[in-house]
Amino acid sequence: MAMTEQRVSYTLDSSLETIDNAEEKATRFATELGFGDDEVMQISMAVREGAVNAVLHGNAYAPDKKVTLAFERTGSELVITIRDQGKGMDLSKIPNPLAPENLLKTSGRGIFLMRSFMDVVEIRPSSTGTELKLIKHVHGTTAGGKEASQ
Amino acid sequence: MTMKVGSRQVDGVTIVDCSGRITLGEGSVILRDTVRDLLSKGNKKIVLNLADVNYIDSSGIGELVSAFTTTKNQGGELKLLNLTKKVNDLLQITKLYTVFDVKDDEASAVKSFK
Hints:
Low-confidence stretches of chain B: none
CATH superfamily of chain B: STAS domain
CATH class of chain B: Alpha Beta
Number of helices of chain A: 3
Strand order of the largest sheet of chain B: 1-2-3-4-5
Radius of gyration of chain A: 16 Å
Shape of chain B: globular
Largest sheet of chain A: 5 strands, antiparallel
Number of domains of chain A: 1
Order of helices and strands of chain A: EHHEEHEE
Structural class of chain A: alpha+beta
Mean pLDDT of chain A: 89
Distance between the termini of chain B: 35 Å
Shape of chain A: globular
Number of domains of chain B: 1
CATH class of chain A: Alpha Beta
Number of strands of chain B: 5
Largest sheet of chain B: 5 strands, mixed
Helix content of chain B: 40-55%
CATH topology of chain A: Heat Shock Protein 90
Distance between the termini of chain A: 17 Å
Strand content of chain B: 25-35%
CATH topology of chain B: Transcription Regulator spoIIAA
Strand content of chain A: 25-35%
CATH architecture of chain B: 2-Layer Sandwich
CATH architecture of chain A: 2-Layer Sandwich
Largest interface: A-B, 20 and 20 residues
CATH superfamily of chain A: Histidine kinase-like ATPase, C-terminal domain
Oligomer: heterodimer
Helix content of chain A: 25-40%
């Protein structure tokens, strides 16, 4: 795909279906941009984890609250934004899932996985919701839309 | 593809063949219910065969941890068998590979129980 800019956004319900839906959209968008299979999996998983946080922890499944999901290709980056309408997360309360005392915890790995899979993860909590920005660098493209070898 | 499970007994060990996705919602619930059901029936030597599990999210990872600790707390053992590369990579980066007893062939997994 040529280095043209493109943006698409969706407004989604606070439901389990939204999580699968967001993952599928991420897979499709990343594939269309020419990312390789491993990177597509990483991007779609990061988006899934972001959507889980928005639906469960942000909006807490509230039917009157929406999740906004946007994909944007800007030059050499894929920028994905996920916003919820919750109370905003407290970043200081996110434990390190790799700490020995946390290894056997059954939750708390979502943000860690996002940070593992994406080049940049920005979290902006506020009293009206949390905005999550996930960025993946495009390492080189050809006119045919396939990722160039490095 | 949602998750499916089937269980069988081999030399006193319960092999749970899992396929599909272990993710938030149905997949995690099926795994949780399966392990709890086995434990309630006294089956405390459990192997989760993940050969056909192609995707796990953080909720699924949490469910694996929960299955492991629940089994251990009831005096049993739960091991993992035949991880796909994706699942293996996830357990590596979350450092859970060191927590779980991971096997790559069924016979040695069965033999490894005391």
